[in-house]
Amino acid sequence: MSAPTYASVNGLQMYYEVHGSGPPLVLLHGGALTAGLNFGPMIPALAESHRVIAVEMQGHGHTADIEREMTLENFADDIVTLLGQLGIEHADLFGYSLGGCVSLAIATRHPELVRKLVLASTPTRRQDFALDGQLDADRMPTAADGQEWEAEYRRVAPHPDRFGDLLARAGAMVGAIADSSPDELRAIRAPTLILIGDRDFISIDQAARTRDLIPDAQLAILPGATHVDVARRPNQVLAMVAPFLDA
């Protein structure tokens, strides 16, 4: 493992870690999470066959927020800029939730960069983020979940008291996300693994529709798992993701 590193990226001091060697694999965390909280238990196994680059995006974890709008386009451009600085021309992307949306934006805007794509619990419609309260309470994050995320933020963030600001800004960002059009999904050429929990925000029917639109896509369903659970089942997720990436 290399020492944690910061890169000057589009006005950010972006935190990232590099683990292992091999084909580059970029890990993109969910909203309000950190790379370690989202992917930490999976990184050692993934690093056995990949050069894993675990990034923390604007306002998340070690990466301080700046006076700039949070948008998928800005987040995607940040990742592309970082990869350019690292001399990486092709990479696999593994994104969870918001990180999956950023991965989709990269695949849409920079298809030449993406070798394989893992979209874990990733909505392709705004309504999939459950902003309108249409999901049963037992599918939603709990108060304990929020406390865990805040505790980790306070542990690593340069401004530990700004977790509430992060939630507000990230929430506004999510609320502004547009639906992925069928044409955008059909244009994705990277082999894609769509992974959801069977009680995720994203319905199985919707995930299957997304799979059918992306030309080379597979769908994996994690049994007994909500949206939050998908990030807490590292062994089961690895059993699905690692064979796809290594094939």
Description:
The protein has helices spanning 35-39, 43-46, 72-85, 98-109, 143-156, 163-175, 182-186, 204-213, 227-230, 234-246, and strands at 5-9, 12-19, 24-28, 51-56, 91-96, 114-120, 192-199, 217-226. By secondary structure, the protein is α/β, with parallel strands linked by helices. The chain contains ten helices and eight strands. Strand 1 and strand 2 form a beta hairpin. The mean pLDDT is 94. The protein has one domain: Alpha/Beta hydrolase fold, catalytic domain (Rossmann fold), CATH 3.40.50.
Q: Outline, from the CA principal axes?
A: globular
- Beginning-to-end CA distance, first to last residue: 24 Å
Low-confidence stretches: none
Question: Considering DSSP H and I runs of 4 or more, what fraction of the residues is helical?
Answer: 25-40%
Just give the CATH class.
Alpha Beta
CATH topology: Rossmann fold
- Percentage of residues in DSSP E strands: 15-25%
H/E element string? EEEHHEHEHEHHHEHEHH
- What characterizes the major β-sheet? 8 strands, mixed
CATH superfamily: Alpha/Beta hydrolase fold, catalytic domain
Chain oligomer state: single chain
Tally of separate helices: 10
Helix/strand structural class: alpha/beta
Task: Report the strand count.
Answer: 8
What is the second-level CATH architecture? 3-Layer(aba) Sandwich
Gyration radius (Cα, Å) is 16 Å
- Indicate the mean pLDDT: 94
Question: How many discrete domains?
Answer: 1
Strands ordered across the widest β-sheet: 1-2-4-3-5-6-7-8
